Every structure is written in structure tokens, then in C-alpha cells.
Fold these 4 entries.
Entry 1:
Amino acid sequence: MQELTHYINGQHVKGTSGRFSDVFNPATGEVQAKCPLASVEEMDQAVRAAMAAQPAWAATNPQRRARVMMEFVRLLNRDMDKLAEALSREHGKTFPDAKGDIQRGLEVVEYCVGAPQLLKGEFTDSAGPGIDIYSMRQPLGVTAGITPFNFPAMIPMWMFAPALACGNAFILKPSERDPSVPLMLAELMEEAGLPKGILQVVNGDKVAVDAILDHEVIQSIGFVGSTPIAQYIYGRGCSNGKRVQCFGGAKNHMIIMPDADMDQAADALIGAGYGAAGERCMAISVAVPVGDETADRLIEKLVPRIEKLKVGPYTAGNDVDYGPVVTGEAKKRILGLIDSGIAQGATLVVDGRDFKLQGYEDGFFVGPHLFDHVTPDMDIYTQEIFGPVLSTVRAGSYEEALKLAMDHEYGNGTAIFTRDGDAARDFAARVNVGMVGINVPIPVPLAYHTFGGWKKSGFGDLNQHGPDSFKFYTRTKTVTSRWPSGIKEGGEFNFKAMD
Ligand code: NAD
């Protein structure tokens, strides 16, 4: 049995707490590795190494830091297949999807190569007689991030790439369910030229997270995961005086207007609803056709497409559409919610409960499910299922459809499918959701825009990646400077306007 490590101060170190969690191969259901769960002392060891290394890294000019990022991009491309294989083996997602996970992180690293430009400050020449004002963006110091299981490459890179490009040290506490790729990324960053101690990986559970929340040296915390934990981390981190951004769960609605291209809408729903077994925070989990006639046409198009979905292990390469869910526990929870949907009166149009795969009987596979006639009071509507289950809520009008998306407690992503520019424009303007797609089902913004949800899907002021990330990982310092002759004439006691 493989025993995984932490990556502290440039070295793989064994866990010393004596506590471990199981890392499964979701396709077979076997435990393939043990992940060490750090103690408070192990976290403190990493923080001390980060504190010692960070000032020299902050003093390295931004262009040199950017060159490390550039080299890291090259190494990611070099090792793409190796990383994707390790990712699929622990997460279960298909091989092409694992590459997408790495690619979407890599693109944020590419954005961070622009650090010299992005870190340029502001300057006001002659704000007063002989007076200039300038603002600098300075790194925070030691920063930390806590990431979920569902994007073990992308989300760590969304955090550590801007943090490092800005001159910080970063401690990553990845998900204990798939920690191997984060460890590989830390090694690759050092191969790219990052000094030891600047990027460390400390594996763990709540003990490690609490150690981050309470450590007085750590200046900022990024979190991505479920909403209850996001709220907990935001509250405790903020009350400890840290800068915190937390991104939580989701229930993303796709509105299908009567004039939509129904084939296009159905294809989009298949990818967005069932891709990655529905384990994406930007998955579409609710289809909202407007009008019964639209709903009937949509269901008619969806059913044959769903029945054709190929579910299997990542080792089947391009021959599978989605893989198993991450753990047996996740599978049990999803099946429990499906039962609740039936009990609460929804119509199960496609039933994947009996799905079995020969040779993989113990894997965590869940067949695809489609519900119709779902209503807002049902658990399958209020809760995030995070599985291959699409719910259809029929709306009587556009306003009713809009209201559904607006009244849901989550506000991560949403989409509208229509040929009517006016409806699309109205939807984008009014909906209280952070990321909107117009005939685009998973509107994940590219690296140079920002990513973040509203309502219970996001806590904090700044989004991930794009310009917000450079604000999140720096502090502004503003200098007012005067070099006149005659400054030595004596003190001035009044608070002066700069005239
Ligand atoms: P999770 O909340 O269970 O775990 C996330 C992280 O928090 C992990 O590192 C975990 O070790 C840690 N953690 C778990 N329980 C904790 C506790 N009690 N105290 C302190 N730390 C704890 O989430 P997950 O199951 O890994 O990921 C799936 C969730 O993440 C879904 O809700 C999904 O929507 C969400 N997600 C959101 C986004 C976004 O950008 N909004 C992106 C990806 C995933």
C-alpha cells in the first residue's frame, strides 16, 4: 500500500501524526494509498519554512518570478499525460477530462506570466508642489489554500499561481481524497526554479484546516468546497483577522426558451449535466424548460441521448463519457437523494439505479438519471446532488423560470438557451448569479476574467483568477513623497490640502 507524504521545504516528508485517510481507486473501489493527516505541529513546521523563504522570493523581481511560471507551463505540458493519469486514477474522471482539469489550471499560470504588467502600481505626478503619490502592490507574506476533490489540479493552480507570482509563499491543503497531483505540482514548480519552502503541500483534514485558520503568520486563506465548510472557514478566518475568499456549492439552472434550438440545448445539457459524473460546481443540475410543449420536446430529445451515455473507467480512454463518483459514500448519498426524489413525487424518466459494469462491480459508478416534474420543495431541488442526475422543473413563463434561479440559495452559474437576444439580455442583466451563459451551458470564464458565484456559492469580496486574484494576493501601500527645497524650514502643524 502506497503511503503518501507531505511536501515541506522542498522535501517529501512522511506524516508523523499517526493518522491517515484512505485514497480509493473509484473505478475498482480499492484503497490504493494512505494519505497522511497533518497535526498542528506539522502545519507549523511548513509555516515556519514558508516564513523563512518568502522575503527573498518577494524581493525577486516580478519578471524573474514570471519566468518560473513560464517554465512551469512547459513542464506541465511535458508531463500532461502523467499528471492526467494520476488524476484519473484517484478522482475517477475520464482521461480527456483530467487533461482539461490540468489545462484550465495551466491557463491561469499563463495569465500569471503577466505578473510584471499586472503588478504595476499607480503614480500621480505632482499631486502637490513637489509632491508625488504612488501606490504599490506588495505581497501578503505566507498565504494558504484549501481545495476540494473535484478539480485536484485546476483549483490548486488557480490559487497558488497568482499567490506565487505576486511574491507570496503558499501552503496548499488539498483534498485528502486525491492528493497525488497537488504533490506532483509542487515538485514541478521547484523543477521550474521556485525556491524551497515557497510552495508546500500539507495533507490533512479538519485538524490541518483549523491549524491554518488559527496560525497567526498566515495572512490569507482561499477555500473551495462545500458551502457549510466555506461558511465556517470564512467566519473563523475573518474573525482571526485574515483575508479570506471562500467558494461553495451550487445548483445551476439552465433555462430553455420555446424558441431555443432543441438539439443544441439537449446536447448542451448532456455534457453539462452528466460530464465528470456531475461532480462539477458548474454542472447544470436543473433544466427549466419554459412551457409544457418545450418541456415535452426537450425530454424527447434528452432520453435517447442519456440512454447512449457510456459510463466506465478512465482506462477506456476516449470511449467513456463519464467515470465513477469519488467514493462509496458519495455514491450512497446520491442514490439516497434519488430515492427521496421518487418518494416526494418527481417522475424518474431515466432510471440508472441498476447500473452495473462487468469487472468493476465494486467501483463507485452511478448510472445517469433524469427527473421530470420536479418542484422547488423537493430535496433533489434544494440540495446539491453532485452526481449524474438532471432534474427538470417546468416553468409556465420566462418570469417564473427567472424567479426559480433567483430564489435558489446558490448562485454559482446559470444559462439561458434562446434565439431571442432581448430575453438573453434581460436574463443576464437581472439574474442574481455570478456566471451566466447565453447558449453556453458551463460558462466558466477564461483565466483573464474572474470566477466566482453569488449568494451561498461565494463568500468574500474578490473572485478567483483574472485581475481579482492579483488584488487578493497583494496589499496596497500608498506613498506620498515630497522632495522640495525648503523642507528643512520647519514643521507644519495643519492638515494640508495639496494645493
Ligand atoms: P468539502 O467541503 O467536503 O471539502 C473541501 C475541503 O475542505 C477539503 O480540503 C477538505 O479536507 C476540507 N474539509 C472538509 N470538511 C472539513 C471540516 N469539517 N472542517 C474543515 N475543513 C474541512 O468539498 P468536496 O466534497 O471536496 O468538494 C465538493 C464541493 O465543492 C461541492 O459542494 C462543489 O460545489 C464545491 N465546489 C465549488 C466550487 C466553486 O468554485 N464554487 C468549485 C469546485 C467545487
Entry 2:
Amino acid sequence: MGEGLLDEVAQAEAEMIAAAATAVERHDDSQAYFDAVIAADQKVEPRDWMPDDYRKGLIRQIAQHAHSEIIGMQPEGNWITRAPSLKRKAILMAKVQDEAGHGLYLYAAAETLGVTREELVDALISGRQKYSSIFNYPTLSWADVGAIGWLVDGAAIVNQVPLCRCSYGPYARAMIRICKEESFHQRQGYEILHTLSHGTEAQHRMAQESVDRWWYPSLAMFGPPDTESTHSAASMAWKIKRHSNDELRQRFVDMCVPQAEVLGLTLPDPDLRWNAERGQHDFTQPDFGELMRVVKGDGPCNAQRMDHRRRAHADGAWVRDAAAAYAAKREKQ
Ligand code: 3HC
């Protein structure tokens, strides 16, 4: 072989190595594999390569979801000591504990994306990450426990059942369990309202007044309208979200109308009516200006919810210290 040819081979080899290095750097193969997994409706797992924005988007959504479950314990926790019977109290305690469990499954799912529990908790208590707007409204009567179960947990189910098919494995699997428990939550709320609605006149009034207050904030839980949703397009392309905010809001309204009839309660929307052409109900949208104000911290209970969470976190410092000391001791043994 002549020297010229050897040089050519060496040159070709060097070019091949450089191209492979660039492909690895650009994750060309990995991106193609990731795209194929998404297209085939398979799951992305923690060990798999994923685009940075997919990882960040998931951390954002799962963390906000986890924070919502944890903050969501407060409005109902408010009624544990005043539940009207031992049975109601036991059910409510179980439900509030379930919410804590949901928060923990979700924090664990977010941790698989390379973020620590400490970072997530810090993002909540420092106010850097959001939680659902709905938990910034007060629980003024016992009927609110029923309305939260029926409407808030009902909205959560409509929003979260599609998340069981989310493309990220740990999130999808956490959601399967969460949705089973949410169904029990929704059912217990519905049963509370049914009992009140068919009780005395005063109880019926209390149930109606509560539904009147929770209806629009529950509709707002689904987020801004599609035209203003910043994350929906990317999230749906990655199959994190399967339906848009407006689609789910509509589905929720259509689900609630016949249920309200059975409850004997009225949904507080004079323009709510069946549209035969669309095969769906027409309804009044929630006040999205109010949603954004509440999300930004200006809701009726934002300050109270955050103060409570910060206090509980500080009060729990000794538990975390003790657990860390115990773990360190075990490691030395
Ligand atoms: N409350 C607070 N923030 C909200 C919100 C709401 N109801 N709706 C939207 N937002 C925020 C978004 O987080 C986003 O803010 P960011 O850019 O700072 O993260 C911004 O408004 C724009 O909204 P997008 O539509 O672009 O956001 P998403 O595509 O993420 O859609 C969502 C919002 C539908 C809430 C979606 O994140 C989602 O499905 N999350 C998972 C479910 C969840 O977190 N539910 C919260 C309630 S949990 C619950 O109800 C528990 C139960 O036990 C009762």
C-alpha cells in the first residue's frame, strides 16, 4: 500500500470518529430512539436519554402536581376536628392521608429525573414553584368537604386519568394508583352532598351554597384557555398531556351536569345548556383573570397556605435530622 493511500485511510478514519463523536454529542441516535418511543406510544424510563426540555417540562409539571397534593391537605384538614360524625371523621382522615401519599409518589417520580426531594420542597416553600389555584380558596362549611370531593377531585380525575398514559413511565405508573384513590375521594364527596341535599332545608341550602362557590374555581383548575396555554403544544407532542385544557374542561362540564341532577343541586351558570349540534354543553368559562391572580399569589388563602406549609416544614426539621442521623449510623455499621 502506498503512503498516499495510507494517509487517505487515516484521514477517513479520523473523519468517521469525529462524525461519531458529533452524533453522540448531538444525541442523534438517542433523539431518533426517543422519537420512535414516543411515536410508538411506549414509555420513556429514567435510564433512557431524553431531550433536556422534556426532562425540565416533566419536572415542572410533576413537581407542581406533588406540591398541589401536599397543599391540598390543608383545606380539608381544616374540617377533621369538626366532622359531623365519627364515620365522617375517619373517612376524611383517610382521604387527607391519601393526599399526602399522592404527594410522596409524585415527588418520588420527579426524583427519577435527577432532582432531589430537598430541591423540590425548597422550590415550594420559597414560592419558586406553583401549586394548583384551587387550594387557595377557603373551606367555610362542612358541605365544602363534599364539594371538594365531587368537583375538585372530580376535576382532578378528568385531568389525571389521561396522565396514566403519559409517556414518562414513573409518572404514568404513579397516576394509575392515584386515580384509583381519587375515585374514592370523588365518591365520598358526592355522597356527602347527596346526603345534605336530601336532608333538611338548611342542609340543602348549605350544599347549594357550597357548589355555587366551588364551581368556577373547579373549572379554572384545568388551566388557561388553549389559546393562552404556554406548555400544551410541547407537552402534547411529547404525549405528557393527552388532551388540551379546554377539551378536559368541556369533558368535566358534560360529566357534572347529569350528576348535579341526581344530587338535586343546580350548577350556578344560567347559560349552561345542551348544544345538540356540538353534542356538548355550552357553558360560561371561568374568570381567567382571577385564575392568574390566584396563581400569582393573590387568592383568598395563598398567604395562609404558604405560612402553614413553612411552619410545618420547620416543625418537622427534627424528624429529618433524626432520620439522617439514623441513616448515617446504619451506614457505619
Ligand atoms: N393552578 C396553578 N397554576 C396553573 C393552573 C392552575 N389551575 N393552570 C395552569 N397553571 C399554570 C401552569 O403551571 C403554567 O405555569 P408555569 O409555566 O409557571 O409552569 C401556566 O399556568 C400556563 O398553563 P399551561 O396550560 O401552559 O400549563 P400546563 O400545560 O402545565 O397545564 C395543568 C396545566 C393542566 C394543570 C397541567 O400542568 C397538569 O395537568 N398537571 C397535572 C395535574 C395537576 O397538577 N393537578 C393539580 C391539582 S392536584 C389535585 O387536584 C389533587 C387532588 O387530590 C384534589
Entry 3:
Amino acid sequence: MGGTGWKGRASDLFRVHEGFDLASVDTSATPGFSGGKQAGRALRTEWGERLSELQERLYADGRSGGSRAVVVVLQGMDSSGKGGIARHVLGMVDPQGVAVRSFGAPTPEELKHHYLWRVRRSLPTPGKIGVFDRSHYEDVLAVRVRGLVEGDPWERRFREINRFERLTDEAGITVIKCALMISPGEQLARLNERLDRPDKHWKFAPSDLDDRALWDDYMHAYQDVFDHTSTAIAPWHVIPADRKWYARLAVTRLLLDTLEAMDLTWPMATFDVAEQRARLEATAVAEGILLHKVEEEPVDDAESPAAETPPRAKGKKKGARSSKRSGASKGSKKAKSSKGSKSSKKESASKKEAASKRESASGKKGKSGRKDAGKDSSLDSAPHSAKEKSKAKGKAKGELRAKAKGKAGDRKAKAA
Ligand code: AMP
Ligand code: MG
């Protein structure tokens, strides 16, 4: 599916099926991807455009009364790259729509409750993508391996977890479970680096070495988790993570596949768009100051009569105003991809602005979004809907400008 160098659905590549054997996983492999680090990073950035659009749709759905959300559960040994997933994958989308929660050793308050209590109350609210950096699985991994509870509650806990995840799914929250698997050698190198570099000391805990000494026990506990809690509703995905860039690419793909399958459409306007447009135009005409603002926009040579013709105004607008979305199309794709996640941070600021504008244009988009919904199942469709979006914006503004100018001309003629 979509993109150079990637083959196969992430769910097929990583999903834990019956008979899965953790010991046979090559943690340095890059299943589904034929390129190297640079190409992998570029592809993730490219996918980030689509991820960002789908996340916005999910967010819009949540703001409009929808109940859907997604939670990415990340498990893995110390230094397996869980934090990097939050930063480099979820960092590609609007931070307003993401909620990251790290689960450490339970607080005294949390210890008073059932182990699922703190997890349940950390689930994402509608429209959000939650990220769990560790999770309830610590209660059948670390707790088990370190011998922190009496007896043998594991089978019961697996059943409780499966039920909890089923109820979570029924509440509209899709659970994506990822285990980032690294080799002991890779962990050695990463922990060593953490000790070498003062700027990484904060990531190291002496207890990491206690857990490292229990490596085989952890692997057995993980195998048991996969055997008992990889369900149809919430399957496990085991991701080779010795190469950080690959693990990030793989989780991006998995998240994209999940969001695509949710078939998210733009919410319908809850108001009469034509009526609101007429009201807006009336204010533009009444307030000379607004007319002025529109004319001041640098993308338009307002003095030129040609600028008033809709096609030209539209074309210019598209380039200037929707660089974020049009970046996914053709020529600008490569340039964008080299900028990495930093560019997407900049973009998120313009997103806020776009969000408020969207409210006035959402009637139109709501319809086109719905029409597109069937086609949107591939990455390639992203630029089309983005184009339509900026076209709609450009058209609305162009019309408004032309009308406002017309009225101003009338006034001038009358005054003369
Ligand atoms: P880190 O994620 O490296 O910041 O470390 C968090 C630590 O908290 C890890 O050593 C986890 O094993 C530990 N932890 C998380 N959840 C639990 C739990 N339920 N019981 C005991 N330890 C936990
Ligand atoms: Mg740690």
C-alpha cells in the first residue's frame, strides 16, 4: 500500500496470530520496507501528511458529538523507543488531538485501587489519539517478573484485561497494541549511550539493569501476554525495534491503516451555510474595514483587474494558503519530507487558524468529504481532498472579495 518502498498492511505484517513465537522474531529486521534509514524517515514524513488529516477528521468527529477515539498502547523493555514513538509519530499531528500518558510504578493513591483503575481513567476522550507509554500490561509483566504480587493471578488478569479492552472498544475507543522488541545487544548499546551522555542521564534508572538481568523472564512473560491477550478486537503487534527509524515508520503505518479503516468523514454543518454566508457578506459590506483587510492580503495583486477573476484568485490562494496540505502533492513532497517533524510543528500553528476558518466553510466540505469517503481509502487520495479544501476556501474568499469590491465601487459611483 501507498508509498515507495513499503509493501503490505501493517496489521498483516505485525499481528500476533495463534502459534506466534517471540523467540523467532528478528528484532533488526524491517518487514514490509525495502529502503534504508533516510528513505524510511522520508516516507514517515510523507505519511505524516495523511496522518495529520485523518487525525483532524477524528478530532472534528469528537467535537461534533462522535464517540470515537484511538489509544496506542506501547510496551517494550527499557530503551526500546516508546518515548520516541510518541515524539516522532504522534509529533506529526496536531498536539491538541493527542494525549500521552506514561505509566510508572503506581502511586500510593493508585495502589488503593484495582490495577485497571488508573488505566480506565486515562483513556482518551472522544476525538483524541491517546498514547500509553507502558500500560496495564506492566501488571502482568514487570509485576509478574519482579514478583510484586502474591499467588498466581495471571490467567485471571488476562481475562480481566481482555474484558476491559472489549468494553473499551465498545465505548468507541480502538485499541492498538504495539510491543517494541529489541535485542539484548541493542539495549546494551542504548543504555551505554545513556550513561555516556549527560543529556541522557535522566533517561537512565539503576533499576533498568535489574530488569535487564531478568531478560529471559521478561521474554517468557511477554510470550504469555501475546498468547492470552491478542484478541480479534485488540490484537498485539510485535514490531522489530532495533532500528528506531523503522519502528517509528511501522507504528505510523499501523496507525494510518487503523484510521483509514475508521472511514472518518467531515461532520455536517449544524447551521444553514448559505444563510450564514449571506450574513457574513452583509457584515463585510457594512464594515469597510473588513473589506480593507481582504484586499491587503499579500497573495493577491488587488489593483489588477485580472485578480478579480475567480480562477486566478483561486490558483494563487491555493499555493499561498494551503502549503500544509498541498505539500503532500507532487513536487513539494520531497522538499517537505526532508524537513522532518519540525515542519509539522510549525504547521500545527496554522492548523488552529484553519480550524476556525473551517467552521465557516464546513458545510461545503462536509458534503465533499462525504463524497470522498469511499475513495479515501488510499494515501493517494489525500492531496485530492486537501486540494478541494483549499479550493473551497479560495472560492469562498474570492466570491466575498469580488462582491465586496462591487459594492464599494457602487458606493464610489454614488458619491461621484
Ligand atoms: P520508565 O517507563 O522507564 O520511566 O519506567 C517506569 C517504571 O515503572 C518501569 O520500570 C516500569 O516497569 C514501572 N512500572 C510501570 N507500571 C508498573 C506497575 N503497575 N507496577 C510496578 N512497576 C511498574
Ligand atoms: Mg526506564
Entry 4:
Amino acid sequence: MAEYKLTEEEQEAAFQQRIDDEQKIEPKDWMPEAYRKNLIRQISQHAHSEVIGEQPEGNWITRSPSLRRKAVLLAKVQDEAGHGLYLYSAAESLGISRAEMIEALQTGKAKYASIFNYPSQTWGDVGAIGWLVDGAAIVNQVSLQRTSYGPYSRAMIKICKEESFHQRQGYQIMIELAKGTPAQKQMAQDSLNRFYWPALMMFGPHDSESAHSAKSMKWKIKRETNDDLRQKFIDQTVPQIEFLGLEHPDKAIKWNEERGHYDSGELNWDEFYKVINGNGHCNRQRIQHHIKAHEEGAWVRDAQLAYNAKQKAKKAADAA
Ligand code: BYC
């Protein structure tokens, strides 16, 4: 008897049913082409963010104020490189190569988180990045632990464990500065003022402007919307700022009893689009640095390929 082949619509309906039933989609499962492409886009951009995100803090490793701080920061930056690797591997499981992803980053076809195009000018910025940038990343990534694609979800679980250490190391720097001399407190305030708004932009445009949200929510690639996650971050940050004894950068921040959330001021969306379209303060510098490091690492990749070829030849010779 001839085997019945599902039509494209039937396959899509069965796929959506699996998503609705909270089943994870794995690399060899059937998936709509648009689901695969959307995932490659989001996961690869997430990987690029982790790797480019090493630069602002990496800038401070040699200038950390103590040996202990240096060891902590070094470990944190190395973790970010590891996060990039998990995520590139998750994206590769969808049928794209590492080389293709790197090319898309270096030629500006693929984006990475806007936040990393802001300069890290003071030691206070290292504190603010850990506290606010990793803090915003956690809010987003905790939600992504429940994403529908298995390899992405599992990568998020591991990454979130490390991110909470990152967030705490940043907040601890802020506590020390905020409780320190007036000049140190001023440094903490200045870093908060400069990083607060760009951290809110990490959650992406408003839901009404978000091109990918509707599809990503239907397929459970994203589990919560950009605005809902941003609101969570706004709400959790208010008491943290109060504890530090610093001034809130948003003068419109106000508890709304009815909504059970803080109301807040509007973001500068012109700045957001300028930065994500390549014209932020550090966009060119970040990509140039990546290209240079990638070229300098070419010999390592060549050596690995030569080693693999030798091992393969040896195996073939042994088998003959
Ligand atoms: N920056 O339709 P939308 C870290 C783009 S790293 C740049 O809402 P989506 C860390 C968006 O890509 C953690 N671009 O998109 C590392 C899209 O452009 P394309 C980073 C942005 O995907 C080192 C367009 O705008 N976390 O923690 O549904 C040191 C329309 O947006 C941004 C992640 O990557 C932005 N902020 O939602 C320290 C999380 N926002 O692709 C710390 C994973 C939007 O059409 N990603 N765009 O050219 C996500 O959750 C989602 O991709 C986003 C955007 C919420 C970011």
C-alpha cells in the first residue's frame, strides 16, 4: 500500500499542534522554512551579541582596580565567549555554518544588541553593564528558557545560571561605588544615567513596531513580548536604584496602583534606530575589532582543519 504523504498544510498544522502542546522542536524534526529562518536570525544575532559584548568590558580588564576584580571580570568576559559558542552551535543545528554567520556579522547583514555600541568610559560603567545589561539580558533569557526550539532552550538554561553571577558582580561594584566617597558615588550615578536608557532598548521596539513578534509568539520562539519584558525590568530596577541611594534617571517614573506596575518615560527611538542601523558611537570600532581578531585567529582554525584531515587520513590508512 502506498504511504500517505502529508500535504504542506497538514505538516504545518501538525507542527503548530506540537508547539501548542509545549513539545520541543529538535534539529531533525520537520519545521516550516520561515520558523527555521526566523530562529537562525534570532539565535545568530544573540550569539553575535554575546561575542561583541565582550569588547566594552574587555576594555577594562587591564585597568581593574584590584587583582580580585581583574580575576572576576576576566572570568565574566570568558563566560560571554562561552555563551557565544553555545548559541552558534544551536544555530548551526539549523543548517547554517559558522563562517556564514560570521560573514553576516562582519558585513553588517546581521545585527547584534544595540547596547554594545555604547562606550565603557569608567570603572562605574563596568558595574552598570553587569547590573543593568546582564540584568536586562536575564529578564529576556529566563523567558527564552521556555522557547520552542530544544537546542536554544537548553543553551538558555545554562546561560542564565552564569548571567546571575554576572549581574551580581556588577551590582556589587555599584554598591561599593554608591556607598563610597562623593566622587565614587558620582561615578556610579553617571554610569547609571548613561546605561539606563540603552538597557531598556535591549528589549527591542514597542510591540506595535516589532516586525517579528507576532510570528515568534505564535511559534513560541519568544514567550513574552518586548514591552512586557521591558516592564518587568523597569519594575525590578526601581528598588535596586533606591537601595543604592542613587537618583532614578527617569523623572517620569511613578507607581501605578491600578496597573500594578511603574509608569515610565518614553525612550528615544530615533537613537535606537540610529544605533541598530550601524550609526551608534562604537558600531564601526566594534566590527573592525572583530574582523582583526578573526583574521589573527585564522592560523588556529587552519591548524584545526589540518589536524582533522591528518586524523581522517590516519583512520583511513588504519582501516585499509
Ligand atoms: N539591538 O521585530 P523585533 C548579553 C532588531 S548579550 C539590536 O522586535 P525580535 C551580554 C531585531 O533584530 C544578550 N537590534 O525583533 C553579552 C530586528 O532586526 P532584523 C543579548 C535589535 O527578534 C556580553 C528589528 O530590530 N540578548 O547579555 O522579535 C556582555 C525588529 O525588532 C534590538 C539577546 O540577543 C536591539 N536591542 O525581538 C554582557 C536576546 N531590538 O533581525 C551582556 C535574544 C530589536 O529584522 N533576542 N532589534 O534585522 C531576542 O530576544 C529578540 O531578538 C529581541 C528582538 C527581543 C532582541
